[in-house]
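task queued by scheduler; priority normal; single chain, no ligands, no partner chains; default sampling; output format set to structure tokens
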Amino acid sequence: MNALEQMELDELQELVFQLSEAEVKQRFRIDSLDSLNWALRKLAALEAKRKENEALAKKEYERIKSWEEKTTRDIDEHKQFFTALIEEYARSQRAADPKWKASTPYGKVGFRKQQPKWTYDEQKALESVETAGLDKFVRVKKELDKTALKASVKVLEDGRVLDTETGLFIDGITVAEQPEALKVEVVE
């Protein structure tokens, strides 16, 4: 943010400090190109301040994120070390007693059966199932082609959509006109 933008913000702060919100709304009206220019200068200064704040926040976020990653990495390495020690001990105990498990005030150690892991080569599996005629294992996804639909229909004044080829109305679609949106661009 440059000195001129800071001056604009200082002026804005003084005005807001001196007047109540109702007085500000009543006192300030844009009624000429000069007053529009004044308001756009204020917007430009506010935008510059926002960007300055974002840059600072991003810099601090990156610094904190770096710290977090380093400390988390150290913690994860220590956890892996102790987990490996526990696993080595637990497997030796399990070899002696198939039903072995342990419980302490700080945690429990035991073994749990897992479901088999399925690995798929999607393309080969799909080809094999289709070749064998096992269509019950194939899922077909249907969806509306909105681009093609918009290109070949007519929208009536009441918002209904008419297919121009068949003359039939398409249920489930309505079109609502939107009002113009104000666009304010502040030059940096």
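post-processing summary
- The mean pLDDT is 88.
- The chain is about 55% helix and 10% strand.
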